[in-house]
Recover the amino acids of this structure.
């Protein structure tokens, strides 16, 4: 599926970071690092690239001016939505071209279980290995 990613110029790690900002809302680089299991310093280049592209914004925390808050911009939300829509379209085409009706039905039965597992993993703040 990675071969079928839209050409928006973002790396997979930048896209993952953008998705995490989307899920968490207003957050800090340290919180993003913890959720993505990387050091906040390692995120600096990706954060700066997303800032330069106008996909996220950064502002000082009103309560602690030493901290920076990161949040999604409308442009970032639009890019994520377009990326998801293109991946969904590719997946639907691949399923239609590859799966039998029975395989498709089985997949639809399993999908809610997989979603439940993914949501539980996201709530726990862990990522699959």
């Amino acid at each position: 599926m990675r071969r079928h990613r839209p050409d928006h110029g973002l790396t997979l790690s930048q896209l993952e970071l953008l998705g995490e900002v989307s899920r968490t809302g207003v957050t800090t680089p340290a919180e993003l690092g913890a959720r993505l299991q990387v050091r906040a310093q390692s995120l600096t280049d990706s954060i700066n690239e997303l800032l330069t592209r106008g996909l996220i914004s950064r502002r000082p925390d009103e309560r602690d001016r030493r901290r920076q808050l990161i949040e999604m911009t409308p442009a970032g939300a639009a890019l994520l939505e377009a990326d998801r829509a293109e991946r969904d379209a590719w997946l639907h085409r691949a399923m239609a071209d590859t799966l039998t009706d029975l395989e498709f039905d089985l997949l639809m039965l399993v999908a809610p279980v997989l979603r439940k597992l993914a949501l539980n993993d996201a709530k726990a703040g862990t990522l699959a290995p």
